[in-house]
Amino acid sequence: MPNSIREEKLAEKLQITLADKVVKSQIEFGELTIMMHARDMLSVGKLLRDEPDFGFDTLIDVCGIDYLTYGENLAIKHELRDKRFGVIYHLLSVSLNHRLRIRILAENNEYPVVDSVTEIWPVADWFEREAFDLYGIVFDGHHDLRRLLTDYGFIGNPFRKDFPLTGYVEMRYDENQKRVIYQPVTIEPREITPHVIREEHYGDCES
């Protein structure tokens, strides 16, 4: 069965089964994406895993996203201008050989919280910790939500669009104290203009 037909059939089944829980559905580049409300992720996730017609037994990836500047110069979908943080899930059914992408948006831009799906797909553990660390998205129900990639004393969330490129602090080894210490950033903001050197007559056409 061609991929496009397979995805269309899956989209129809999802629409019938989930009804109004599917906010939006689209197929692009042979991939099906559905958008849902964050409050429905747990109940829908269990159904997608357990329902024989879907059989999404494998969670491939979970990633956060920051829509802070998304579509500033474009007339795009209202929900992406309203809500700042989203979570993307990539699911695979090994037995039925089909895939699904789910996008949900956190309701609160100041304190983004979504339900953890570790009870459905335990592999979500470190994926959710990564999104918590880099975006500050809190996964309610996660059994051990700690930073994963940055240091425990790290300030802020480095993948947020408003996080400064230089960060807030820097660390170095202090020879006198014999330990690593934090200090204010010493890098001064500057605009870098590359200096290009070319040979004489570079690019001239031969006569």
What does the secondary structure layout of this molecule look like, with pairings?
Elements: H1 3-18, E1 22-28, E2 31-37, H2 41-50, E3 58-66, H3 78-82, E4 85-93, E5 98-105, E6 113-115, H4 124-135, E7 138-140, E8 169-174, E9 179-184
Parallel strand pairs: 2-5, 6-7
Antiparallel strand pairs: 1-2, 3-4, 4-5, 8-9
What does this structure look like?
It is a single chain. This protein is α/β, with parallel strands linked by helices and 207 residues long. It has one domain (3-163): Beta Polymerase, domain 2 (2-Layer Sandwich), CATH 3.30.460. Helix content is 21%, strand content 28%. The protein contains 4 helices and 9 strands, in the order H-E-E-H-E-H-E-E-E-H-E-E-E. It has helices at residues 3-18, 41-50, 78-82, 124-135, and strands spanning 22-28, 31-37, 58-66, 85-93, 98-105, 113-115, 138-140, 169-174, 179-184. It has a 5-stranded mixed beta sheet. Strands 6-7 form a two-stranded parallel ribbon. A two-stranded antiparallel sheet has the order 8-9. A hairpin with a 4-residue loop joins strand 4 (85-93) and strand 5 (98-105).
